[in-house]
Amino acid sequence: METIRLLVQNLIVIIMLAVFLEMFLPQSDLRRYIKLVMGLLIIVAVLQAVSSLAKSSWKQALPEQAIGAESPGFPSLSEITAAGENLNKDQRAQAQEKYRQSLARQISALVGIRSDIEVVSAEVQTYDEPDSPKLGQIKKIILHLKSNASPVGEEKKSIVQPVKIQSEKNAPGSGTNTDDQKNGSQIPIQTKDKLVKILTNFYNLSPEQIIILEE
């Protein structure tokens, strides 16, 4: 009823406005445009009233439980959003892991070019924080090496071994093991320095980011 009352009020105002404009305007073609505008206003008022009646009748036809309740068997919007965020995190973690594996294989290949040493394992740490400006950059490289003392003429074994990937959370502490004066050290310090130089130049790192451990 409230919608019908507003419709009648709007129609009365529009009709009165049209009558006053016809009384005060002179006889000219302008009256035709005034009638056209008034007709459009009447059409708009009627359409607004009809749309309001249609909305109210639709809500009355359905129970309140059906309007506000969620569809059974379907997840809510919050559940869909949470699932999407978890999927995004899993995909990002998998991509970072594959990236570290690729770096470790590349580093093993670079170091394994030398025939006098053998790469036992290569561990790579990267910046994994999403908000970090260094995301994806190498944080630390840890090489486990041993001297390759196979005699000349003997068939050489493959010096590139399976690599191990370690994230920055569970990796050993920073620092470079360059002490060749300890007992049992078989890799000369000059060899280690050359390897550090190769890696620092290739990956634009500082020597402190390269750790060489001897098996």
Polypeptide structure, described:
The protein has 215 residues and is mainly alpha-helical. It folds into two domains: 2-23 and 30-59; 95-214, no CATH class. Helices cover 51% and strands 12% of the residues. It contains five helices and three strands. It has helices at residues 2-24, 30-61, 64-68, 77-111, 189-203, and strands at residues 117-126, 138-147, 210-214. It has a three-stranded mixed sheet, with helices on one face. Strand 2 (138-147), helix 5 and strand 3 form a beta-alpha-beta unit. Helix 1 (2-24) packs antiparallel against helix 2 (30-61). The longest helix is centred in the middle third of the chain and has 35 residues, at 77-111. The radius of gyration is 40 Å and the shape is rod-shaped. The N and C termini lie far apart (91 Å).
Features:
single chain, about 220 residues, mainly alpha, three-stranded mixed beta sheet, 5 helices, about 50% helix, rod-shaped
Please summarize what this structure is.
With 215 residues, the protein is mostly helical.
Q: Beta-strand level of the residues, as a percent range?
A: 5-15%
> Percentage of helical residues?
40-55%
Poorly predicted runs: 65-69, 151-160, 167-183
Number of domains: 2
In whole angstroms, how far apart are the ends? 91 Å
Order of helices and strands: HHHHEEHE
Q: What overall geometry do the principal axes of the alpha carbons give?
A: rod-shaped
Continuous helix count: 5
Q: Indicate the radius of gyration in whole angstroms.
A: 40 Å
Counting DSSP E segments of at least 2 residues, the number of strands comes to: 3
Report mean pLDDT, rounded to a whole number.
Answer: 76
> What structural class results from the helix and strand content?
mainly alpha
